[in-house]
């Protein structure tokens, strides 16, 4: 599928016209691309499809080659990967997911800026990949806030599992933005002079936006760590309360155990052993000891 960029309009065209136009974008599936290009380029693509695990940009003599590995939002175990080539005034995508075609159609159907070029399109395309990420990060922040509120409300069921899931997602997004930052800076460096000087500054804007998203992700990672520390503190407080109760019970029953052991020795001439009020007296003494211990604990706490 071929698109030409002319007179601030981006529209579909034929292969022959695409090759003759100043600025153009092409979209291939991996099968179509392998049939259309030489062996060396096919080898590069094959290596990329086997190893699309990163967002990267590589420089060659006649072109730039890159891959994008995009995390699916709200589907935390799935990712989208595709490759692209950048040549002078030409941009080629190799994608089997349908994401690139969807974004191209959305960009081409909108109002394009004056003096639109392939560099401007590449910037718009890269921005379209991250334009909803701020909202996604805001949703993650809300999830962390709800977990913090649940801790204060003593509702901490499955906390460790939920927190681990959020931390893994934040780590995945942080790595993604780190790789995008490197890619944006590589485009801004314009090492092979494929981009015009007037348009290359847009890639610095893109890199700055990704850096801000990376910083926001780092803030959320630190927030998640703080909430986890609050949870650990709450667990410690609960354990201290349990130990406090056990200590009180042990302290109360210790003198009672002493009395029971003392009068259980069965010596012949023990005092009060044959006294008619001996047994009620021991009961009364035990009650007095318990009440005295409770009063002492209440006063000290």
From TrEMBL:
Q: Which domain of life is it from?
A: Bacteria
Q: How does it sit in the membrane?
A: Multi-pass membrane protein
The record, for SUPFAM superfamilies, names: CorA soluble domain-like, Magnesium transport protein CorA, transmembrane region
Keywords in alphabetical order, please.
Cell membrane, Ion transport, Magnesium, Membrane, Transmembrane, Transmembrane helix, Transport
> Signal sequence span per UniProt?
none
Biological role stated in the UniProt entry: Mediates influx of magnesium ions. Alternates between open and closed states. Activated by low cytoplasmic Mg(2+) levels. Inactive when cytoplasmic Mg(2+) levels are high.
Protein name (database record): Cobalt transporter
Source organism of this protein record: Aminipila luticellarii
